[in-house]
Design a protein that fits this description.
Layout: E1 3-5, E2 16-20, H1 27-36, E3 44-50, E4 53-57, E5 60-64, E6 70-78
Parallel strand pairs: 2-5
Antiparallel strand pairs: 1-2, 3-6, 4-5
Length: 89
């Protein structure tokens, strides 16, 4: 999962926090938004996802997709295979 940096910090500054998901992160919300944006299985994109919820636990942050309303695709890094994102299930 992605590493997020504290406001005002920069990569390499030593103030990063690991972010993970849990069984309660509601990945079906993420899949639905990905389908709306026509993202396919195995496609890699750089995107803004908004809003999401982060909850702090000792040594990590847990990411929740439940409040997510949109995905803004900034760049397609690698094309997908055209398959459904439902393959994750």
């Amino acid at each position: 999962m992605k590493t997020f940096f504290s406001p005002g910090s920069a990569p390499g500054s030593g103030t990063s926090t690991n972010v993970t998901t849990s069984a309660f992160s509601q990945p079906h919300v993420l899949r639905q938004r990905m389908q709306e944006e026509k993202i396919t299985h195995a496609q890699t994109v750089t995107a803004n996802i908004s809003p999401v919820r982060l909850e702090a636990y000792p040594g990590k942050l847990v990411l929740y997709f439940c409040p997510m309303k949109s995905i803004e695709i900034l760049e397609t890094v690698a094309d997908g295979d055209g398959g459904s994102t439902d393959r994750w299930r």
